[in-house]
Amino acid sequence: MLVIAHRGASGERPEHTLAAYERAIDQGADYIEPDLVATKDLVLVARHENELSETTDVAAREEFEDRQRSKTIDGRLVTGWFAEDFTLAELRTLRAKERIPAIRPANARYDGLYTIPTLAEIVQLVRAKEAESGRRIGLYPELKHPTFLLQEAGIDMVDLLVTQLRTLDLDDAEDLVFVQSFEVGPLRRLDSMIEVPLVQLVKAEGGPADIPATSYDEMLSPTGLADIASYADAIGADLQLIFGPEGIPSGLVGEAQQAGLQVHVWTLRKENAYLPPVLQRGDAPGATGNVPGMVNLLKVQGVDGVFTDDPGMVVSALAQLRGN
Length: 324
Hints:
By secondary structure, this protein is an alpha/beta fold.
């Protein structure tokens, strides 16, 4: 089962920082996962969303007070500061902060230490750590809101990513790269442009922003899975889709694999707040629950990969299962 470091080791460092990615690599993650947004001058950088105030100190910067905007993104009104309204040089002045300090107060100790990394810098880190460790480390980028950015800002995320991957020599089938998106059209375009495997992300509700008449539920029917398999190599599925309300396996893993798709699930986090009641330990939302228990449940189902904020714990749990 692949261990995919979700935004890096974001259970221990502010997400989407070089520190979080390096921590994940040192803990043995197979892949690190940067969410990609674009700057005004068309540089791909890593942020969970194009809105910046949740994960940076932009709201406290007087020089950027007049950049606050309201935008409708994938049907939702969002007010804040957006990466596509800043040049890379301007973004470089911002500092990252912990997104959920109430759950992860220890991470907040690192607020203000790290800048926003570019995709090129992340690849540079990966290659340096490969040389240091002697093992290959994969890259698992996600395109964030590509249709919105194309329609509203004229930024073609697909073209930017393909150009970057080609420049970095990371566009071939043998490269350890997965590219993921919740949208369908960008993945179909990518399928004709690069050889790396593609991942259709799916949620337990809603549907892809670029095909509003289609639901993820429809996409996970036998016919829908066969269609996904025509352009993608895997699904990235919400954990809620893998287990029913009583914790009984939904059957999706087997159905997707029968359609020729790998199944990667998101997101395994160590805190009680993100685990089902049976795997929680104590009453505190931020306390560590039974991560090995969840890893075992996923392993039994034959899941091919897991996104996790805590790659060290998952790597350890998998090693214990192999030992058994």
